[in-house]
Amino acid sequence: MKKLQVIRSGKSEHTHTHEHAHSHAHEHPTTPSTTRGSSYWRSLETKGGVDDAAWREFPEDADKLEIPADGVSRRRFFGLMGSGAALAGIASSTTGCIRKPKENILPFTERPEDMIPGQALHYSSAFQIGDTVEGILVESQDGRPMKIEGNPKHPGSQGGTNVLAQASVLDLYDPDRSRTAVVAGAAVPLSGPLGPLPPELEAGLSGFSSSGGQGLALVLPLILSPTERSLLADIKRRLPNVRVFLDDAFAPLNSVTAAEKIGGPGARYRYSMLGAKVVFSADCNFFGFEPDATRLSREWSRARRIVKPEDEMSRVYYAEPTFTTAGAMADHRVRLRSADMGEALLVLAHELAGTARGPVDLASLPQGTVDETAKQMLAVLAKDLIAAGPGQSVILVGERQPAWVHELGLAINAALGNVDRTVRWVVDPTAPAMEPLSALAEGLRAGAITSVFAIGTNPAYDGGGDLGLAELLAASGVTLWHAGLYRDETGAAAALHLPLSHDLEAWGDVQGPDGTVTVRQPLIEPLHGSVSRTELFAWLASGQWIDGYSLIKGQWMQFAGAAFTDAAWRKWLHDGVVTERPGLTAPTLAGWAQVAADVSSRPAPIPADAWEVNLVLDAKVGDGRFANNVWLQEAPEPMTKIVWDNAALISNKSAKALGVGIGDLVTVSVDGRQITIPVFIAPGQVDQTITISLGYGRRILPHHENGKAAVTTDGAGFNAYPLRSAANPWFAAGQVSVAGGRYRIVTTQDYGLMKPTTGNETIDATAYGTFPERPIVLEATREDYSHDPDFVDKANLMPQERLQHLWDPPKLEGLHQWGMSIDLNLCNGCNVCVVACQAENNIPVVGKEQVGNNREMHWVRIDRYFRGDEDNPTAVLQPMACQHCESAPCETVCPVAATVHSPEGLNEMTYNRCIGTRYCSNNCPYKVRRFNFFNYNTNLRPSTFWNEDTDGAWLRQMQKNQNVTIRFRGVMEKCTYCVQRINQAKIAAHVRGTDVIEDGEIKSACSQVCPTGAVVFGNIADPKSRVSIAKRSSRDYSVLSDLNVHPRTTYLARIRNVHPDLPRPIPDLPGHAAPAHAPEAGHGAHGEGEHGAHAENQPHPEHGGH
Amino acid sequence: MSHYIPPTHEHDLDPLEGRTALIQGNPTFGEVTEAVVRPIEQPHIAWWLFFLPALGLLSLFGLSVGWVVWEGIGAWGNNVPVGWGWPIVNFVFWVGIGHAGTLISAVLFLFRQKWRTSINRASEAMTIFAVICALQFPVIHVGRLWVIYWALPIPNQMAAWPNFRSPLLWDVFAVATYFTVSLMFWYVGLIPDLATMRDRAKSKIGQIAYGLFALGWRGSARHWVNYESAYLLLAAMATPLVLSVHSIVSFDFAVSQLPGWHTTIFPPYFVAGAIFSGFGMVLTLMIPLRVWFRLEHIITIKHLESMAKVILLTGTLVGYAYGMELFISWYSGNPYESFVFANRLFGDYWWAYWIMTSCNVITPQFIWFKKIRRSPIALFILSIFVNIGMWFERFVIVVSSLHHDFLPSSWGYFTPTIWDVATLLGSFGLFFTFFLLFLRFVPVIALAEVKSVMPRANPHYVDPNRRAKAPRPEPRVAAGEMVTHEESTPEAAHEPADDGLSFPPPPSPEPGTTLRADDETEDKNG
After folding, report:
1. Residue of chain A minimizing CA distance to B69
2. pLDDT averaged over chain A?
3. Which of A27, A553, A1013, B4 could be a cystine partner for A96, CB 3.0 to 4.6 Å?
4. Mutate to test the interface with A, among B67, B79, B156, B255 (most CBs of A within 10 A)
5. In A389-488, which residue ranges form alpha helices assigned H by DSSP?
């Protein structure tokens, strides 16, 4: 059993405990000046001598570092620290660890044999957002957490992560994080993680002790930590009158309500796609931020990975108002308003009523009404569900749907025999009772609540809409306290603000929805002397400061009782999964009778002539808590490709009816509350609906008063919370009118049709439609695939035998030959690879303006192409990074040979040799090379003359991967297949004495995090490697094969498991249609047969300087 | 010192050849010299009116280059599909302009086109300055200009060597060779005239400066022999460069595999375009110049007309190339190729394509009309359109091919920034600063050469005034044969050769002229 994940060393027998881990991790990073000063020296002699200190474990006087309460002198401390940091790179990473928690001093008298300087270590931890819990492994380099991987042992991640977890490491180093307590507008530096809180807070709380917390409200996010839940109970014991409110847009309130109605208090259910042959998703984007989406993605991928045409493959039906990636990956998608989802389920229920029998009599439910297209699909779906057999299907209901729709979905699932198979029920017995924000608003209005303590929440921002919390909290007579990562809207209004520790800085624990518990380990001492949420809870509960480690370990001693041993504890920490915890029990589903009642009393659907205003969690920044994460801001929204903004998505038809185009401002109002927001035309959107993502329009105060925020989220996007109401948080009837004015929306990709147009609507009359579709993303129906397994070959525009090389192709004689295979059947466009690559390869962020000028730096991008009718198209997704062409066009044209081929088939980029002619980029047919137009790494605000926040840049640098060069301006860069990982594995293999890297020993960053396993990387010279097997598939093809560049990254064509009774959503392949196969009218999907002239005439979006 | 007033008519015939005289008004050699050097010796105050703005633009060039070097290439509008923007457009534009000079001075020389002598000096100067401008751009457009020498095959301790498969490296050699040969050719042709300037210089500085550059030229027969051979050799060396340079510049595009660049027609098409644009620029410069410097009798309408004809020819060739590109893009059946050309015509940059086509294909067709091609004003306007059109041709090739290539997902749009505009304008400042300095200090007409094509240089020539006094004997030297006078002296030059029996008298002592006949009006240099 592995004791410690040292993934890259390939060794499995380590005896480390977390204590080692902890102590290694604590290189104190607070003062950039000292680390900066000590970063460079010319020789060891100039630095203070080799003999004295360099080869000793600890720098001189390190023993004095057990700092007494009154403290050593600051000068002395920093002096030692600087010396220690300097030696960190020489002796070992251990000497960089200066500050150690008292509980675990385990000085190394000898360096442990696996402790290799420069070798990264991995520690297990967990990431939680809403009801989604992912076990993670955090990579730490010399004490700096720098990259997050999924923990393969954790059921919630299974080795993958979602994009938020992937990006969360950057928040740790966010220059705008709150660094001091702020009392009445004045900064109060905290004396340390365990120092006393500002006296104002102490005094306030002691006042409440006497009244039992009368008038005090705690505003908390969804709490899944067993320790925090237990502490919360303690708080309630100490302050019985305290009221606890839930403020978390990620919390699955609707499905919880439905579950508790049917299964009683604490009942929860979660979906599974394992074994589901037929899936119907009613607005449930299981690739997005639905609960447990990462696990669902992985389960979905198992049923979509096919090798041979005969292989089993699930069929996914999808109904949604806005095109999402899950809709793009579905086999059949139908546009449906959010308000009609319940109706659709009712239609489905009646279709099934004759055959499927469950606890709810489906036939007795009221009739639903949907349009003809949806009805047609639902009828076929019903047949398909019955044909799949009991327990072989799943109906997914999106969290945005009200509780009655969830109940209905559960009833249908039950009728289909899916309970305990694809719908799994549990009881969460310790779930704390939390009141909704509407109760908080009422309490504030009534004066029952006089003090509010928002811990890790931002009610002044996300309590907008009809609650009006921002005004209520700012009213006189209300004392507002805030603890958070940022001094945000609530922090700015608060009388007292306290910085909270990042998850990677604090001990904690979290219980996943299936009952899996993970203990979260800190990897670094809090950068800004902050306290963790758990510690703050403990202080509220006891009035005492207890450090997180004691809290968590103590709690688990209690929970586990006699089963708690040091060995067990170490194993939990190592594996990232707590084993000594009884599984969750299943509830008795006694409330089915409620379903029919709730369905009958459902609210009237939004009238057909009204606009439906949909609010969704933003694919980039969620509900807004990640708004300051620049990786996420610049990871394009998967379908619209918008960066740094949100927008009102509407269909082209509706936009034309309104007379607006992309970027035109409209006023959207719901119940008299209105916002002004630019329009973005989104193909696939239901007409007369508008979709706006939450999480924008944030305002975060900089960490120091006179500076600017390093990341200016001010002005990014538009706050949609005012449209939200407590009753209809996700969609409601509203009005839309033209506001006048324009706003620049920036995307990384135009609409992009594989059948291109010149894009000029006024002039282009004839050219349009005469160009054949380009064979870029190949897809076929399952039926076509089985008739013609080699269909991908027909996409070659030029017979392979006619292709000739201008130069002799390089001889590739390396031991390994690296290659990648990307399964387009599995890629769901979730952006995780984009952010993972950014974290791994030190890829800078360039900001909205620069993205607008096509200068984004992502090494991997996800291309999205629409096909067919502009209002109701299908879409495909394709990750695109350097293809590592064997006969690379970029290499021949470089005048200085800065990009050359390695014997192992890597197209290598030598940054140091590059003079920046950009010829390679011009000659790259895939346009995957990225140029450093500015010095993005030292200037957080590119294209400004002076960099105002050098402090911020230094903090940001702590995230950088030390094994990857940071590129200077003026040089080209691109995907390297993570050559640093390859080289580390080669060194390890050399040390082993074999020089042969085993399959799976290395994964590129993108393939490692991919939740669906779409990306496979490895040695194609090894016929048994996974990548070789993938490439032998008949679906394997290379993009632009007729250019004869022989890319090493190839793709597996997408297969749509289309139901024969439904209109075919995709046309034949180019070159596939026989001449006799009359025009394109045959593919009834768009019935009219108008593929030509105007049917696909996509409007040209505002992009850059159009 | 006589002040020659140039005639306004253009109908003087060459008395010996019977054709329109290349130099109108039958001036004497001395009058030609006077006319050409007068702007140097008595400079116009107006020179400053041009020079100061040019200097201002040059400062703008320095400023914009400085800003780009300080900030990064991002100061320009370049982005990822459009890796090359205006800098490369400007590079090709300026290199192309250079071609006219070499064509006029070398190719026309080898083809014995006498009319070239009136314009070759200025057009060669234009070539050199245009190539200097062109050379700026590949240098400043790279991301790290401080290491640009890595593109040169200099043995170094890094053991790094350039990649000889890259067309950019071919460019380095092609343009560097071109510049070197052009400069040498120009300079060699200048030597006799520099000696004239030396001999006429009144200031010490002038005497020393011109003297240094005149390399001790005395006009001896041996000098002339060496000079003529050197000039001929350099012309022979420069001639292939006219074809090679722009062919190789076109390889930057043609060797890549980008649709719209990857075409075999590029080398001849680029050469034709270069000559086209070069002659356009020569006209743009010469038409005002001949008026300003009162050289209409030397740079005559006939010269302008000849150049216009070259423009008509090359412009039509370019038009043919445009048509052929379109035809092949359709005929090839390559969807990427055919899309790129449709996109050029109708896509985001349709306006650039139609500016290019109108300027380069339609404009020259006006030259079919004699009235237009003999009208300096009309030609000047046409030449401006040619310049604009050829700049846009390069813009179309560079930007419209790059912005939409293979994968629609990576398509983008290029928008120039203020620094793009500043760099282009600044390069004109660089060019005009050099050109105005040239006008100020160097004879704008190749004196020695132009005199050689005047009737007076013909041994058969008899001055009509003299003939009235005494019939001129038949010279015993065959026409065209060089008559040399090793030991000519100023005194000898002024003895009237009126005995009718002896050889024609020694030529004028005026250095740097190839006098073949006596000239009573020749005045003496100090």
Report:
1. A970
2. 80
3. A27
4. B79
5. 403-415, 437-446, 459-462, 469-474
